[in-house]
Amino acid sequence: MAQKTSAKEKEREFIIECIQLYRDLPALWNVKSKLYHDRDKKSMAYDLLLSKYQEMFPKANKDLKKKFNALRTNYRKELKKHMDSMKSGASADSIYEPTLWYYSDMNFLHDQEMACDSESSMDITQNSDTQNSVEDDVEQNTVCL
């Protein structure tokens, strides 16, 4: 049993090392980075991450992307639970504390995972229609001043 726990701990430590490398490769996760939009840089970054990952899992291949997407998905779920519990007006004692073992290691993604304020497409369409109507009226010289 001790060996099993030890192997699990070693694997977790290794995954955390991979997460730290992932954090140092913004081409893979930072949508605001120019590197993120460069396919060659992104491919080189995945190759670097893959070579690290293959130290413990030699048969790993480009499916490593799926592994990190799964890690991000789990992080995002925990983050959402935490943020929702803070919004609910709950007391400090009832705020959800994430239990994911690598949650704190993935906190560099916090800004990436939080939704930006958005504008409804219905508002944009209505504003566009109103703008087009005003432009049409101006062209026809029927706007009353």
How would you characterize this protein structure?
The chain is mostly helical. Helices cover 58% and strands 0% of the residues. The protein has 5 helices and no strands. It has helices at residues 2-23, 39-53, 64-87, 110-113, 121-139. The longest helix is centred in the middle third of the chain and has 24 residues, at 64-87. It is flat and about 45 Å long. The chain starts with a helix and ends in a 6-residue tail after the last helix. Mean pLDDT is 82; it is low at 137-145.
Radius of gyration: 24 Å
- Which stretches are poorly predicted, pLDDT < 50 over at least 5 residues? 137-145
Mean model confidence by pLDDT = 82
Strand content: under 5%
Oligomeric state as shown: single chain
Tally of DSSP β-strands: 0
Q: How helix-rich are the residues, as a percent range? A: 55-70%
Order of helices and strands: HHHHH
User: Which structural class best describes the helix and strand composition?
Assistant: mainly alpha
Q: What is the global morphology?
A: flat
Distance between the termini: 85 Å
> How many H/I helical runs?
5
Q: What does the main sheet amount to?
A: none
